[in-house]
């Protein structure tokens, strides 16, 4: 199966956004859903501490749900996943020009969020 771009994913995911919701409700749905889905991923790891094995397919499906919620939030707010990810990479390149190091992590420049 061929991988898709982030923006292709976002467009395909958007077809399943609930059209009965207002923009404000879609934004709330995305925010609450993002927190909820991240919680489900964390729950899998919490179970691991109790001796459970993490089923790879289950983890991948939950990560996909996280991606869907992020795509919904970007869509309702007028961003593309591609631009959000590009901005993040640009930020990381500026913060860590030679790759991660603890010194740059601890002592960030002003306004480096």
Describe the structure.
The structure is a single chain. The chain has 113 residues and is mostly helical. The protein is 68% helix and 0% strand. It has five helices and no strands. It has helices at 6-14, 23-48, 56-77, 81-95, 102-106. Helix 1 (6-14) crosses helix 3 and helix 2 (23-48) runs antiparallel to helix 3 (56-77). The N and C termini lie far apart (36 Å).
Question: What is the topological layout?
Answer:
Blueprint: H1 6-14, H2 23-48, H3 56-77, H4 81-95, H5 102-106
Helix pairs in contact: 1-3, 2-3
Share of helical residues? 55-70%
How does the overall form come out from the CA principal axes?
Answer: globular
Q: End-to-end span in angstroms?
A: 36 Å
Q: What is the total tally of β strands? A: 0
Number of domains: 2
Order of helices and strands: HHHHH
| Low-pLDDT windows of residues | none
Rg (CA only): 17 Å
Largest sheet: none
Mean pLDDT value: 96
What class, by secondary structure content?
Answer: mainly alpha
Count of alpha and pi helical runs = 5
Q: What is the percentage of strand-forming residues?
A: under 5%
In short:
The longest helix has 26 residues, at 23-48.
